[in-house]
Structure formats: structure tokens, C-alpha cells
Amino acid sequence: TKHTVIQTRDPLDKWKLSLILTIRNVSDKDLGIYTCESTNSLGKTTANVRVYEITGIELEQYNQAKKKASVINTNVTSQN
What we know:
Strand order of the largest sheet: 1-2-5
Helix content: under 10%
Shape: elongated
Distance between the termini: 36 Å
Number of helices: 0
Structural class: mainly beta
Radius of gyration: 16 Å
Largest sheet: 3 strands, antiparallel
Low-confidence stretches: none
């Protein structure tokens, strides 16, 4: 699949949850804002991540292969 989301829970803090979004074969269509939303009995919180092109960087040869992927890691924290 193009997009994969993996969810992990912190073993030391049962209330802390992390999500990792992987975008495979990144193209211009994948650029933009991605929103992570969490809802529970206490309410709702959101966090945004912007995916943008970085210019002026020479990619190493192995990154130009078909299996290239981008990984974005963000944390959403609510203080209630």
C-alpha cells in the first residue's frame, strides 16, 4: 500500500501512544498537510504535519531505487 500507519504504546506510560506514517514512492501528490486526530471520553485533540519537498539535496544512489520511502514521526500530547 502507498500509506501505512503503525501504532505503538509506551510500555512505561499506558496513556502515551505513538503513530508512525510511512509514505512509499513519494511524489508531488503526497505533499501537503496530514492531520492526526485523537478522540476519547475527555475530548478531541489534533496535530498537523506538513510534508514538503526539500530542494538542493543530492540523493544517494540507493535512495533513488523503487523502494524509497519517507517516514514522518509526530507526537500528540494532551494535558487534561
